[in-house]
Amino acid sequence: MKGLTLKFATLSLRQRLIISAILCVLLPSLITFLVSNYFTKDVLQERAVKQSEDTLRLLDLNITSYLDNLMYVSNYIQFNNEITSILKENQYHYTKDGPVSKLSALQYVKISRNLEDMTDLLSPSYITILMKNGFSYTNYPGYEYDPNNFYKQEWFDNIKDLNFYETYWLGAHPTYIESQKKKNPYLITIARAIEISGKTYAYTIISINEKEISNIFEQFASNDEQTLMLINSEGTIISNQNEQEIQKKFSYIKQIQNNQENYSIVDYKNKEYLLVSRSLSNADWKLVSLVPYKKTVGNINTITRTTLLLQGVLFFIFLIILIYLVNELTKPVSRLSHVTKEVENGNLQIRSGIKGNGDIALLGNSFDKMLDKIEEMIEQIKIEENGKRKAELEMLQAQINPHFLFNVLNSIRLKIIMNGDKDSAKLIQSLSSLLRMTINRNNEFIPLYEEIEVVDHYVRLMNFRHKGYIEIINDLASNTILEEIPRFFLQPLIENAIIHGFDQKGGTIIISSWIEDDVLIIRLNDNGKGMDVERLQLLKQKYMNKTFNHQLENKASLTGIGINNVYQRLMMIYGETFRMEIDSQRSKGTEIKFYIPRK
Question: Which residue would you say has higher pLDDT here, 224 or 578?
């Protein structure tokens, strides 16, 4: 998070404004969309649950009607006096091995007629009255199914212990009618015992085709993907649109039994379904509805896509307008930023030129006025610095010791008296030239060759004064002799070399010059006594760092006032583009290099 904050802080004002505006619009829109999507999803889910509950309520009415008919037939057989009297009489005339005596055909016809009437009421249905002596009455042919086979079924033991009022709900099982096995493979059956005077004489077994129930499911299913089923209390599927599912266990029976809201979202066959259940009115069975969850909330996808598309278009339009407005509003700020960078790079002539009465326009005008003031101050400083340089030049030129002039003049006078040779004339010429150069202060810059002439005259006079002979060797490149340099800056260095380097004894000074990368390089080499590393370092600290400490003051004899003055003067003229290097070794001499920019 801290890294993102630092990165955000490094962006320009325009970029930060755009990002902030986008976030302020995008985040509320996104949050609003997610919240509305969440609540819309709940509303659609509740609507789907309500629709499924209504469907199950209608199914309950229809299926209960079928089951009520089953119960009606069962009760009719149980309580019809004519049927019960015939069954009681048959109990005495028939055994498991066959009839004891002949029974009136009229009795059999009566039973058959009653069964046929009930079949018309509950069509198609299969009714069996199974006597304990093995005789039976059916509304279907005997070749379709032998009713005595019911005794062999596992479930038949469950009805033997039933009392007069109890009914056994068998649920779905494979059909026992041979001709219907392909068309109607499953039956739904109930069974109960028939008692006469507290004694069980027979059993009633009534079945209807499972197709009757599944056809109702198909009529009420809201779409092809909705699954409707009827399950018993143990979770076995009694009826389903898909015959392959009948008699299978439903995986979520416990969830249905424990869920108080009667609905939940389940993973059924690797797909999410909305499960809604309802108990039947007259049986311990449940109706179940399974609707694909995505189908249930399918409308939300359309709403989502439409909303996203609309928001995307509006956001894109807003973004273009926003970028345009931010660019227009921050142009003055960008202009000011560009101007400040140019000023930082040294361009003081640039101006923002921002017009108007706004805050940024006033800031730009103030900034331009500040630059104007700075330029005026710089010009004033330049004038003052030029005056200062001329004053220092005059001071340097005035540093020629008057005693030296007097001594030289006295020496020339004595020489002329004693000898009248040409050397005296040369000395007088040199002195005149030197005095003329000293007195003439009109030009601050002179060609290199004129400065060399001043040095030659000075050395000639010094050779006359002292016993030692100083030799000057000029090694000047031809393209350098006309280069203009500050006047009178080599003489103090020559004087330093003679006084401190040679101790007023003889020696050689080589003056070289050349041009390299548009820089005039002037080098002075002498073969004097030189300096050790410590004294050389102290000298550099003095003229470069202006560190005048007590240690340097105590060793002022090794520095020479000329070197420091020359360096400071050239630095004032050329600034940071000027460079001076000094190298010296004990007993080997000293080398000084000047790097003077030609511009």
Answer: 578
